[in-house]
Amino acid sequence: MSEKEQSTPPQGIFAAGTWQEATQTPPAMGIPVIPETPQEESPPFLAPEDREVAFPGAFRVNGPANQDNNVQQEIPQAPIDALVTHSIEDCDEEVTNMLNLRSPAQPNQRSRKYWRQRLLHLLSLEINVVLLAVIMALLIFVAVSEGGNTSNSSNSNNSQSINQQNGALQVPATAGVAKLPTRAPASFLDSLNLSESTLSAMEREQSPQSKAYKWLTSNLNNQSSTQQDLPNWRLVQRFGLATFYYSTGGDYWVRHRGWLDWDTNECRWEQLFIDSSDASCNNKGEIKALEFSRANNMDGTIPPEVSLLSRSLQSFHVNRQLELKGTIPTEVGLLSRLTMLILSGTALSGTLPTEIGQLQDLQTVRVYWTGLHGCIPSELGTLGNLSRIGVAEADLTGSVPDEVFQLPSLRSLELLECSGLNTEFTLQEATIQSKYLKQLFLSGRTVGAEMAIPSEIGTLTELKHLTLNDWRNSGTILSEFGRLTKLASLDLRENSIVGTLPHELFELTYLSNLQLGSNQLEGLPPPGIFSALTRLNILQLNDNHFSGKIPTEVGLLSSLVRLELQNTDLFGTLPTELLQLENLTRLVVTNTSLSGSIPEELCDKMYRKDFKCFGNHDPPCRWIPVKTNTTVCHGTSLCGCDCRPCPKPVD
C-alpha cells in the first residue's frame, strides 16, 4: 500500500479508523468493547463536527488536535439514546453499500469477508434497538396498567382487597363480587372502626376475632351470596356476633341453627329469633337483645367485641352457661344503650368492672351464681336510672356503698348468700334512705351480730316483697308491718325471731306468701283473723313453738295451695273445714301431736291428675288420677291418705 494511501483517511461513514484497524476482527456482535482511555487524552464526548460515530464498540475519532501526529483516540460507548437516534437512512445507505460490496470513497478495497462482518454488526445494532424498544413499551404498559388498577380499586363497587398493613392478616379479594360502598380496599378495615385490641387479636390466626373477620370478608367476596348490599353498621353487627359465636364455642352449642348463615338475617338466628317473631331486633334490623337464658353448652369467654353491638343493644342476658369463664370485659361499659345486664349461672371470675358506671341507661344489673369477687363498685350509685340490683352467691367483700341506697330510681335490691359481704347495716340503711323500694331481698348474712328488724321498716310503704331469710334477725315481728299495705310476700325464715304473731300481719289483704318457718315464734293467731287473707297461697309456720289446735278459720283461706305445719307442738285433729280448700295440693304435718283420721274427701282433692299415654296410643290417651305424696304425716298419729292405714271400725 502506498504512503499516500496510508496517510489519506478513507471517506464515508467508515472513515473513523485506519485501514489496518478497519480490517481487524470487530468485537463480538452486540457486546461493545470499551478500551481504557489514557488520562491525558481529550474528553470522550467531542463536538459533532469533530467526530464520526462508527459501529458499536470503541468509538474512534480524529479531531483537529491530533491530525498532525495521526494519534487516534478511543472513547467509551456513547449513551443509549445516541444509538437510538442513529439515522435509519444512514443505516440503509450502509446496508446498500455493503450489499454492493463497496465503499463510496474506496471501491474494491475491502474484502467480502469484511463487509459480511460489518453487515452482521449493523443488523445486531438494529435488533438490539428493536428489543430495547419492545422492553420499554412493555414497562410503560405495565406501569399504566397498575396505575389504572389502583384508580379502579378506589372507585369501583365491584372489587375488594383487604390487606392489613402489618402483614399478619391478609385476605385477598375476588374482583367484581363484593358490592361494598365506594371506598378504597384499605379503608374497609378502617370503616369497621375496630379497637386496637381487636386489631391486635386479629393478628392471631386462630383467634375468634380473626375467624370472624375471615368469615365476614369471604362472604362479601362470595358471588352467589344474596346478602351483599349491606350497610356498614350491618357488617359491624355481624362481625360482633360472629366473634361472640367463635369465642364461646358456637360450633358446639346445643342451639345454633342459622348462626353464621350469611344469607339468613341475623335477627332470625336461633335464640335471637324468639317466639316466631324478631323480638331480639328492632324494626331496622338492629340487635336489641342478646339473651341466652337456657343452657346452651357455651364454653369460652365473653369477647370485648360484644361492645360492637352498642348501636342498639339494650339487653344482655347469659344464664346457665356453666363453662363460660373469664372476666366481664371492661368494654361492656361501651354499650351505651344497655338497660339490662344479667350474668348468672356461669364460671365468670374477676370483679364487677367499674366501667358499668358509664351505662347511664342501665336499669337492671344482676350477677348470680358466679365466681366474682371484690367490692360492689360505688360507680353504681351514679346511675340515675338504675332500679334493680341483684347479687347472689358471689364472693363479694366490703359493704354496700351508700350511693346505692341513695339512688332515686332504686326499686329492687337483692343480696343473696353473699357470705363475705358486710351487710350488717344494709337493712337499716335501706329502710332509712330507699323509701321507694318495692322489693328487698336479703339472705345468707353470716357475719356481724344479730340485730332486730328496725322499726323504720314501716316507712317502706311501696314495698311488695320482703325477704329477710337467714339474716340473723332477732327481736319480734313488729306491728309496723301492718303499714305495708301493698305487701304480697313476706319471708322471715331461719332467723331468731321470738314472740307471737301480731294481728296487724293478718290485715295485709294483698298477702299471698307468708313464710315464717324456723324461728322461735309461739302461740297461735287469735280466732277470726284469717278471713282477710283470701289471696294467701302459701302458709309456712313450721319449725316454731306453736301449740294448740289448728283454728277452724283456716278453712277461710280459699286460695291456699300449701299448708306446712311440721315440727310444731300442734295437737288435736285436722279440722273438717280443710275440705273447703278447693286449691289445696300439699299438707305437711310431720312431727306434730295431731291424731285421728284424714277425711277421704280431702285425700281425693289432693290427688294430682297427670296426662298419661299407653303404648302406641291405642286406646287413646286419657286422664287418669295419679296418687302422689301430697300429705306428709310421718311422726304423727294420723291415718289415712298417705299416712298409715286407719284401723277398720269394730262392728
From TrEMBL:
Gene3D superfamilies per UniProt: Ribonuclease Inhibitor (3.80.10.10)
Xref: InterPro entries: LRR_dom_sf (IPR032675), PGIP (IPR051848)
Subcellular location, record wording: Cell envelope
Region of interest: Disordered: 1-46
Membrane-traversing stretches: 119-144
Protein keywords: Leucine-rich repeat, Membrane, Repeat, Transmembrane, Transmembrane helix
Name of the protein this chain belongs to: Leucine rich repeat
Source organism (scientific name): Seminavis robusta
